[in-house]
Structures are given as C-alpha cells and as structure tokens.
Amino acid sequence: MVELQEKNLHLGEILKKMGRVIVAFSGGVDSAVVLKRAQQELGDNVLAVIVKSELFRKSEYNAAVKFAEDLGVSVRQIEMKELDHPAIAANNPDSWYYSKKLLYTHLNELAEELDYPYVLDGMIMDDMEDFRPGLKARTEEGIRSVLQEAHFYKKEVRALAKELDLPVWNKLASCSLASRFPYGTKLDKQKVDQVNQAELYLKGIGFDEVRVRYHENVARIEVTAEKIAELITKRTEVQHKLVFLGFDYVSVDLRGYRTGSMNEVLPEAAGDKIAANA
Predict the structure, then answer these.
(1) Catalytic residues (predicted)?
(2) Which of 90, 175, 245, 266 is flagged as catalytic?
(3) What is the DSSP string of 123-147?
C-alpha cells in the first residue's frame, strides 16, 4: 500500500508539471485512472478525447463518453475510419502499428489545434513485457504514457482505481475486434459485425469473458475454462444463433479463453515480437 501511494504521488508530480493535457480515453481502467488523476491535479485543463471506430463496440464508446461526462471533464468525440486504411484492413502483424499511428496522429493534430502541449495514453508497465507495435507508434508521435513513467502495473492501477471510487476498477479488458481474425484475413465491416454480434450474444447468455475467433466459415469460441462445460450445455442454442449470423460450423476451444491466441500459430521468432493482443 505504501508503494502504491508513493507511485500515486509520483504520478501527481508528473501531471502537475504538464499544466494542460489531452487524455486518450478508451473507457478502460488504465485510461480512467489517468483521466481522474489528471482532473485532480489540473482541474479544467484536461480534455478527454474519445474515438469512435468500426473496430470497437458502440457500447464501449457510449460508456466511455458517459463516464467522462459524469466525471465532469471536457469531452471531444472524434471518429476514425480504420477499415478505410489499407494497412489496417490488411490485418497483418504490423497493422497494430498503423492503427495506433492513425490514432496518435489524430490526437496530435487536435492537440496542436486546441493548444494542448501534451497527449496522454493509458499504457502501463505490463505493456513493456512484450514487443507491442503500438509502443513504436507512441514513441514516434511523442505521446506520454504517465502510468509507465510512474511505474504502475495492472494490479496497482486497479487498486488505485478502486481507491478513487472509479466504477471501472474491475472492468474486463477489451481490445480491437481485429484481434479475432487470423493475420492475413482482410477485414471488412461485414466480418467485424458478424464477430461482434456473436460475442454480444454470448455475453448476453452469461459468458462475460469470451472471444469468437473467425476462421472463414468456422467460429472458434473461447470462454474461461470453468465456463466450458456450461457452454457445452447450451450448444444447441449457440449453434443455432451463430449459424444464423453466418457461420457454417461452431467449435469450442478446449484451451479456454486467453489473450493473443491468434499469435500462437506464428513462427516462434516472429511470435516473440508480437504483442499478446486480446
């Protein structure tokens, strides 16, 4: 607890020196802590920028907007057409770099227009454990990862979020819907919507931690190990729904829910350099 308080004080010192900041706010716990602490230290000199994209759920976007507005910070909503970007739609391992590059470029342009000297994101120390293409884009664009600068790990971020009474302190991690597709499978709105609707359905029947991995006409469902048996008991209705959504076959991954499962088929050398995207 003492170490957490020391890190929190350090975070406050970092923020105070910035004076005026834009926070790239996703609605997740990491960026929520950045936004709240920035507000505490800088008051009205904080702008939350929330990005709408075809690769993130509308419900997540709406929740992020509501959270920021309820917090009382200024909010700017912008939109990115990621599927219009050939390098992102190609869905190769380096597509994550181009996605972050597009985001950070938008944010820097807005910061220059509105005279904000700093743009902050929510990256944490855990993100340093793997090579993440987004880190390269972050560094190139000069974005500040203040939680990393204050040496916060995920468990500490959640603890601080709970202490700050943020309702997202225990929120499950979310990720771009692109992570549901094998590398090299070109993305389009129909495929993304198909996977999104399948996951929303499964969440609606009790599977909070779930991924539907897209393999052309096959849906590979990942749920936590303790929920696999329950999923099997609901196999008839699940099969019916996912076939209705456009899949010919529905499978259950017996290894269960895990982040980065699309990276497992990459050559080991390449896999070592790919982030464990969700």
Answers:
(1) 175 (nucleophile and sulfur donor)
(2) 175
(3) --GGGGSS--HHHHHHHHHT-B-HH
